[in-house]
Write a structure and sequence with these properties.
- By secondary structure, this protein is α/β, with parallel strands linked by helices.
- Helices cover 45% and strands 15% of the residues.
- It has a single domain, classed as NAD(P)-binding Rossmann-like Domain (Rossmann fold, 3-Layer(aba) Sandwich), CATH 3.40.50.
- Strands 3-2-1-4-5-6-7 form a seven-stranded parallel sheet, sandwiched between helices.
- Helix 2 links the parallel strand 2 and strand 3.
- It is globular.
- The relative contact order is 0.15.
Length: 247
């Protein structure tokens, strides 16, 4: 085991599957104690109940009170939170023109993809300020930079995540806290598997490497972003796009 994150306390949302799951295990591999947040209790228990470095927390991260309560429990026990990684996300209804977008679905996608990041970061930042240290990573998407046709809710919610990252990065730049985002192109996850084939093809065709990214590639980049080594980059969106984003 690497000691890069030894004795660090991390929260990872969306930890039961996909990128969140891969990042949670990568952080544990490097010494962190991970509180795995997810709504899917069965999957959480399957992955995290028998690991001494992880604590499964079944939670609805769109519920601000639940988020505050669970974060306060962690602080009461651990005294500190070093790392927050927000990976929870849904695409919502896709492959549909904006004028036909369902408003309730759009609100739901914003609640899950954006507001949950607001709630978790608001809950952990005061503790990070007390300890003059913190690493926050919000999972965005290339869709939040460029906008994917047929994905109004998802693209707009991820653009909001990028905007918030810029704001938070600026606000806490002198405090020892870094706040960054990661914007993948298509990563092969259950979320992508549930998209219509034509939507996945539309996104993959835009990638010069002509392939999906891997979970390990995402987890390795995330590890650097939330490590002590990343001390001079904040408010930035790290791309993971196989050459699609070049700016």
């Amino acid at each position: 085991m690497s000691a890069k994150l030894l004795n660090q306390i991390a929260i990872v949302t969306g930890a039961a599957s996909g990128i969140g799951n891969a990042i949670a295990f990568k952080l544990m591999e490097h010494g962190a104690r991970v509180y795995a947040f997810d709504l899917n209790e069965n999957l959480l228990l399957q992955y995290f109940s028998n690991n001494s470095q992880s604590i499964p927390v079944a939670i609805d991260v769109t519920n601000r009170q639940q988020v505050n309560d669970e974060v306060n429990k962690i602080i009461s026990k651990e005294k500190k939170i070093d790392i927050l990684v927000n990976c929870v996300g849904i695409t919502g209804i896709t492959n549909i023109k904006s004028h036909l977008a369902d408003i309730e679905n759009l609100k739901l996608v914003f609640d899950v993809n954006f507001m949950s990041c607001v709630y978790t970061s608001q809950s952990v930042i005061p503790n990070m300020l007390e300890h003059h240290y913190g690493r926050i990573l919000h999972l965005a998407s290339i869709a939040g930079k460029e906008g994917n046709a047929g994905m109004l809710a998802y693209s707009a919610s991820k653009a909001a995540v990028i905007g918030m990252t810029k704001v938070q990065g600026s606000e806490y730049a002198e405090t020892g806290i870094t706040v960054n985002a990661m914007a993948p192109a298509v990563i092969r996850t259950p979320l992508v598997d549930n998209m219509p084939d034509e939507q996945v093809k539309y996104m993959t065709d835009k990638i010069p490497m002509k392939r999906c990214g891997t979970l390990d590639e995402a987890a390795n980049l995330a590890l650097y972003i939330v490590s002590p080594e990343n001390s001079f980059t904040t408010g930035f969106t790290f791309d993971l796009t196989g050459g699609r984003a070049r700016y």
